[in-house]
Design a protein that fits this description.
The complex is a heterodimer of chains A (277) and B (336). Chain A is mainly alpha-helical and 277 residues long. Helix content of chain A is 71%, strand content 0%. Chain A has eleven helices and no strands. The chains are: A mainly alpha (277), B mainly alpha (336).
């Protein structure tokens, strides 16, 4: 609780959080009031912004504004899911390796190091190529599964240094089980790191979704910010000058990552006293 | 045996192991698909109205050509054997062209685009970051959020926006390709000028993002170093600011050198989408073509090249880092 209060003293963190929540609620609330289907062919190809279509239409004559909001929702969902999955796996592996040590640590650390070096984006491409139907959940899941290693490494380092603290010895003497100690005596001390890693994982999840979609491996039949960009590129929106089809999704992605990076910078300054000036 | 040499050979062993795991993933992941790529291609052809008997013959010869008629473990061993010989197989979509020769032509374009862009961005970014950390005040207050924002624009979004503004709207630069189609590659002034003209937009889009990322990292490291005890102590001793700054800069540079090496390692895979945006004839564009046409050998060849460059870069970092930072070397030797 105290740390939370401390967090809110950082202007950077609060600003980033507000921006992120605004975007998130925009994506969640808009579809409640506006029932238009983003895949509906509402107009003609590449109509410029007008009173009817505030952000014009895309290559199939779909309303870009409606697509954008639904895409925002999709990308947020994939990012949050990927971030959660990556953080859970990373914390599980890092905590176990760091706290238990010995051969378990050696084994898990080796696996982590191998997956740190093999580029996650490559594994993402290889898995995506082999999946013919890529739903939202699956996209989030595979992005999460490919991006846990650096969270694991950071958590492991923290857990290793905590292992030799006195309160851990005390917990051992009082007969707590290994799992209980990990959960109640180690985890709370590294919560701030984990939260920071989670924020960065969400940002990288959203970027990964967009990147893989631009390669033509995005979610099937769903609008996301990445698939919007990929359609714009594929159907020559850029070269025909239909800026409304690609500038809005590009800026939206930038704003989401910007808000998350700002949050993480703010947190870094709070948790890392040496950066405070 | 020399302990440092021992350390290196152990590292080398791990990298070779990692490489084989990468090959394993590279081979088996795309084969998770039900059916096989050849039947996917044949069914695509079938919609084009080719008669069924010749399709059958095509299927047989393709299966044999790509060795898909053998059991998986045999295929895998053949795959490794071929890789060690430098043969990445035959492309489906550009049959009978070899993947090695396609990627061999593409790789120089990718490297020529990325290497200068990464280096420029790295140098400018580090200078800005160090200055921002040292001066603080307005310079930092203005520059930092700008850098953070530029850095949060994904590199491919920036590429698209630049392409639209300077290529389509202002028409200052060509809108894609490595060189004009009506020119034949030659070592002539017109051709070089044309290549540079096509080069500028993709180059600058990578440089801008690199400046943001490196600048932020350098700023953070410099602030951290400026707040350390040795700086305070040196100040109390009355050592001149210039001299202290030199120490600070040297220490803050270390992680930045890793950053440089890492981005050089991800060079081939780092800007795949930039190449797609500008239809630049590098590895990224070929990977994109491969994905669109289900050309598995081409996809696997590209991902393998990307992985290999990352592995080699990481190995080089491990060696070089021990040489330039005595603290790391000591830690490496302890690790034994």
């Amino acid at each position: 609780m105290k740390t939370l209060k401390l967090l809110f003293t950082s202007k950077k963190f609060v600003f980033g959080l507000c921006l992120f929540l605004t975007l998130l609620f925009l994506g969640l609330l808009f579809p409640v009031f506006n029932h238009k289907d983003p895949l509906d062919l509402a107009g003609f190809m590449y109509q410029p912004p007008s009173k009817e279509f505030w952000l014009g239409t895309d290559n199939f004559g779909r309303d870009v504004l409606v697509e954008l909001i639904h895409g925002l929702k999709t990308s947020m969902f994939i990012g949050l899911l990927a971030g959660t999955v990556a953080t859970l796996i990373g914390v599980g592996i890092g905590l176990t390796a760091g706290y238990i040590g010995g051969w378990v640590d050696n084994l898990l650390n080796t696996i982590t190091n191998i997956f740190l070096v093999v580029p996650p984006f490559v594994i993402l491409i290889l898995i995506s190529v082999s999946l013919q139907n890529r739903s939202l959940g699956i996209m989030g899941l595979i992005i999460g599964i490919t991006s846990w290693p650096w969270t694991a490494r950071a958590v492991r380092a923290q857990a290793t240094s905590l292992r030799v603290r006195e309160h851990i010895d005390l917990a051992k003497i009082s007969g707590m089980g290994t799992f209980e100690i990990m959960l109640r005596e180690v985890l709370p001390y590294i919560m701030s790191y984990i939260f920071m890693a989670f924020v960065l994982q969400v940002a990288s999840g959203i970027l990964n979704e967009a990147g893989i979609s631009m390669l033509g491996l995005g979610p099937s039949n769903i609008v996301s910010l990445g698939t919007m960009l990929s359609w714009a590129l594929l159907f020559e929106a850029v070269r025909t000058g239909a800026w409304w089809a690609f500038i809005p999704p590009a800026l939206t992605i930038a704003f989401i990552t910007f808000s998350l990076l700002f949050m993480s910078t703010g947190m870094d300054e709070i948790f890392n006293p040496r950066l405070r000036s | 045996m020399n302990p440092y040499f021992k350390y290196l050979s152990r590292k080398l062993f791990w990298y070779i192991l990692t490489f084989f795991i990468a090959i394993f993933l590279n081979f088996f992941l795309p084969r998770l698909i039900p059916g096989n790529p050849v039947s996917a291609i044949i069914s695509q052809m079938a919609t084009g109205g080719v008669n069924s008997e010749s399709l059958e013959r095509l299927y047989e010869s393709f299966m044999k050509e790509f060795g898909l008629d053998k059991p998986l473990p045999v295929q895998f061993i053949n795959y490794i054997k071929n890789i060690l010989k430098g043969d990445l197989g035959t492309s489906f979509s550009l049959f009978p062209k070899k993947v090695t020769s396609i990627l061999g032509e593409a790789l120089p374009w990718t490297i020529a685009l990325q290497l200068p862009a990464i280096l420029t961005g790295w140098i400018i970014g580090n200078l800005f970051g160090a200055i921002a950390a040292y001066k603080r005040g307005t310079f930092d207050k203005v520059l930092f959020p700008v850098a953070l924002f530029v850095n949060s624009i994904p590199y491919y979004c920036l590429a698209i926006i630049l392409l639209y503004i300077f290529g389509v709207y202002l028409e200052w630069f060509p809108i894609g390709g490595g060189y004009s189609r009506n020119l034949i590659p030659a070592f002539s002034w017109t051709f070089i000028k044309d290549v540079l003209h096509h080069y500028f937009l993709p180059y600058i889009s990578i440089v801008l993002v690199a400046i943001g990322g490196q600048g932020i990292g350098m700023r953070e490291m410099s602030i951290y170093e400026l707040n350390t005890d040795y700086v305070l102590y040196s100040r109390l001793l009355g050592i001149s600011d210039r001299k202290i700054l030199k120490y600070v800069f040297r220490n803050a540079m270390l992680p930045q050198i890793t950053g440089l090496a890492l981005s050089l390692g991800t060079m081939v895979g780092g800007a795949l989408v930039t190449e797609i945006v500008f239809s630049y004839p590098g590895v990224g564009s070929w990977l994109f073509n491969g994905i669109r046409q289900l050309d598995y050998p081409l996809i696997q060849g590209s991902t393998l090249i990307i992985t290999l460059t990352v592995l080699v870069a990481n190995f080089i970092i491990d060696i070089v880092y021990g040489i330039i930072d005595p603290r790391v070397k000591a830690a490496q030797l302890e690790e034994r």
